[in-house]
Design a protein that fits this description.
Length: 309
């Protein structure tokens, strides 16, 4: 086994001069205030060993990475029935695109675009109050990361709710197609709170470890999902985890991953490790610019790409 600490330190050092690369998301005012020069990396191996560099212990807004945890919860509750509500094909369009949704009768392409996560959230609300669903979500992520300190940043949630006109449009659009059962305000309220979960790279890498280890978290011993389900969630992350940049991410990095507009990316090296990177500046597809580079370098230096070394 190679020296992962040396690898991660080298990547950090080599990319440090480029801190601030990309454009920080500003459509959620609270996110625009984050220091663009932040840069953190964390790797947690399936043996439970953690390697970190830079701002790995600073909490940031995980945004769309929350869609992975929400999907995992929903699959646990509803099983394969969720695919009646949302597809599992790459969208090839932006995270908040409405065009495709109209063409396809209000059924979102996959659970990792906004419309898809909104549909999954609607399912989770069946028979529950928004507060219950948010509480369950936070408890779930805390248990995955084995860390009770993880909390929602309520200012981010409020900031997004105040400016989330596009998401409101998506939700209303789906409602008009009869594709949402719950009140739009409830669905959006829960969705915004999921996105506003604040986590560090270290916490995020720990919480994704079950996906690298056939569904079982090796640090807590908890079986989170079956091996088959872990494999399937990884497949969705690989094909749909980076919006219309998913193909490029697969080409450059070759790992299942999910990005968020807060600048975080959670990546999974099956059988090896869970990896989280954070740098707020985004590339043209809305994925962390420096974070993507860091993962590309890591995949090259470890040979962890799922497509071969
Ligand atoms: N909360 C963000 C939104 O709905 C999530 C987008 C993202 O992280 O890609 O706009």
């Amino acid at each position: 086994m190679f020296d992962l600490q040396a690898i991660i330190d080298d990547i950090y050092r080599e990319l440090e001069p480029q801190r601030g690369l990309g454009k920080v998301a500003d459509y959620i005012p609270q996110l625009a205030r984050v220091d663009a020069r932040r840069f953190g990396l964390a790797i947690v191996t399936v043996e439970g060993q953690a390697y970190v560099a830079g701002d790995a212990d600073t909490a940031f807004s995980i945004q769309s990475i929350s869609k992975v945890f929400n999907l995992t919860l929903a699959l646990g509750k509803f099983g394969e029935a969720i695919w009646r509500r949302v597809g599992r094909e790459p969208s090839g369009s932006a995270f908040n695109s409405i065009v495709q949704l109209e063409q396809e009768g209000g059924k979102p392409r996959n659970p990792f675009i906004n419309a898809g996560a909104i549909a999954v959230t609607d399912l989770m609300l069946a028979g529950h109050t928004p507060r219950e669903v948010i509480g369950e979500f936070v408890r779930f992520v805390r248990s995955l990361a084995d860390d009770e300190t993880i909390v929602i940043d309520h200012e981010v949630a409020a900031s997004e709710a105040a400016t989330g006109f596009r998401n409101a449009a998506l939700a209303n659009f789906m409602k008009s197609f009869g594709k949402l059962d719950q009140p739009v305000e409830h669905v959006l309220g829960v969705y915004f709170h999921h996105c506003a979960l604040a986590m560090s790279c270290r916490q995020l890498a720990k919480s994704g470890l079950f996906l690298a280890n056939n569904g079982r978290n090796p640090m807590t011993g908890h079986s989170v999902v079956s091996p088959q389900r872990a494999r399937r969630i990884n497949a969705l992350m690989l094909t749909c985890g980076h919006y219309d940049g998913s193909g490029d991410f697969a080409y450059q990095v070759g790992l299942p991953g999910k990005s968020g507009v807060g600048g975080g990316i959670l990546a999974v090296a099956p059988g090896k490790a869970s990896i989280a990177v954070w740098s707020p500046g985004l590339n043209d597809n809305g994925n962390s610019a420096l974070g993507s580079k860091a993962l590309e370098m890591l995949a090259q230096r470890t040979g962890w790409s799922v497509f071969g070394s």
